[in-house]
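[recover] target loaded
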């Protein structure tokens, strides 16, 4: 499992350690260079302090703090004779280079400074090894405290990262405590800007789940209520068939039983279609579908019902392609035509048309039935809604199914007056790239 905390700690600690080592190295080298410059300045200052004492060179006594120092002082008079040497026993440095110079003498490397005066030459020399030891000591005294701060800095980083990730842990614990029935929003107060979008999206998901569960419960309750009537009708027709006194009564009861069974089957099919086409957040698996072909397939499914009711059913197909699900579009056309055929009086007309035009692709179904009053057109999309005084014995699911399939395809459904005098339903599909 990938841990954000571990990745942050490793990255930050590596960055801090690398930066500290780089800073320590640069500081160490810088201190070495500055110390060398300081030692050179010290050589020059010593030479300058002795320039007025050349005439007294044979009797020259160094201050106590310089007498035992790691310096070698040599003085030559104006004639080139050495008149003073501060460290007898050490190898003589015979070179009298003016200014700063690096000289090898007696197997040692020396850093020297020569000063020319009116009375002679003063040379101050110091072993390079001594300078390096002193410079490294000074540099380490600067760098070591920086290195000792690394563990404290690492502990501080771990604490800061842990404190920064605490809101994530709190959200995770709150989600972990939820059960399947707990869909209340997660508290979003005092959350960092980086965590708030995640919690907001989780709350939107919980809201969608709550709405889906509510719709599912409502669907189950409505379906149970609607199925009760046709199943009760089937039972009553069976009882009438059992109590039929003669063959004619039995034939009539059997015909009524068959009609009741057909109504129950039709209702179950509509319920299954509605359940399969519940609105979804984003439709997936859509493909390019010829809308005119889907219209032809949907009309074929309802052709027998139109013949039985003596309905003039016609298709005006203009080739047009939409992004959709073939079976869902076929169900949409089937329910549109079935609704129109059932509500149109025998001998009426139903026209189905597909068009592309300059706007969005559309499917139109117009009938010569009684139509729907404008006041009822918004409510007809509700499940199991039946208009008062309707002559049809349908379940009221047809337009609800149509609306669900249209929503799945991001299509718009509108109701209007048909030229035939009845209702015209238009389903406009969005153009997709």
């Amino acid at each position: 499992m990938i841990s954000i905390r571990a990745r942050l700690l490793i990255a930050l600690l590596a960055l801090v350690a690398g930066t500290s080592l780089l800073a320590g190295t640069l500081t160490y080298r810088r201190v070495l260079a500055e110390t060398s410059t300081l030692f050179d300045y010290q050589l020059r200052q010593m030479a300058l302090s002795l320039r007025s004492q050349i005439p007294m060179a044979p009797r020259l006594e160094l201050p106590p703090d310089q007498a035992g120092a790691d310096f070698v002082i040599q003085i030559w008079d104006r004639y080139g004779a050495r008149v003073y040497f501060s460290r007898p026993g050490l190898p003589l440095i015979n070179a009298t280079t003016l200014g700063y110079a690096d000289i090898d003498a007696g197997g040692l490397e020396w850093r020297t400074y020569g000063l020319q005066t009116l009375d002679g030459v003063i040379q101050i020399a110091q072993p390079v090894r001594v300078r390096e030891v002193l410079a490294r000591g000074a540099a380490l005294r600067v760098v070591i405290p920086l290195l000792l701060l690394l563990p404290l800095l690492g502990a501080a980083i771990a604490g800061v990262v842990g404190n920064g990730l605490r809101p994530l842990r709190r959200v995770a614990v709150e989600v972990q405590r939820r059960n399947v029935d707990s869909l209340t929003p997660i508290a979003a107060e005092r959350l960092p800007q980086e965590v708030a979008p995640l919690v907001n999206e989780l709350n939107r998901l919980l809201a969608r789940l709550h709405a889906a569960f509510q719709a599912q419960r409502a669907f189950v309750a409505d379906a149970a209520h609607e199925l009760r009537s046709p199943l009760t009708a089937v039972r009553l027709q069976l009882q009438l068939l059992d109590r039929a006194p003669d063959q004619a009564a039995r034939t009539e009861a059997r015909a009524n039983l068959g009609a009741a069974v057909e109504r129950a089957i039709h209702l179950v099919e509509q319920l299954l279609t509605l359940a399969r086409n519940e609105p979804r957040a984003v439709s997936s698996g859509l493909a390019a579908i010829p809308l005119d072909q889907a219209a032809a397939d949907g009309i074929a499914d309802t052709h027998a019902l139109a013949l039985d009711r003596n309905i003039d059913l016609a298709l005006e197909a203009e080739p047009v392609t939409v992004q959709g699900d073939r079976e869902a579009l076929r169900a949409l056309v089937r329910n549109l035509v079935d609704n129109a055929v059932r509500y149109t009086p025998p001998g009426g007309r139903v026209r189905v048309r597909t068009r592309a035009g300059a706007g969005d692709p559309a499917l139109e179904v117009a009938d010569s039935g009684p139509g729907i009053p404008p006041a009822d057109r918004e409510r007809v999309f509700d499940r199991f809604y039946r208009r008062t005084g309707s002559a049809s014995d349908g379940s009221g699911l047809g337009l609800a199914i149509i609306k669900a399939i249209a929503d799945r395809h991001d299509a718009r459904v509108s109701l209007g007056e048909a030229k035939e005098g009845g209702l015209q339903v238009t389903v406009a599909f969005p153009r997709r790239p």
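[recover] notes: The radius of gyration is 50 Å.
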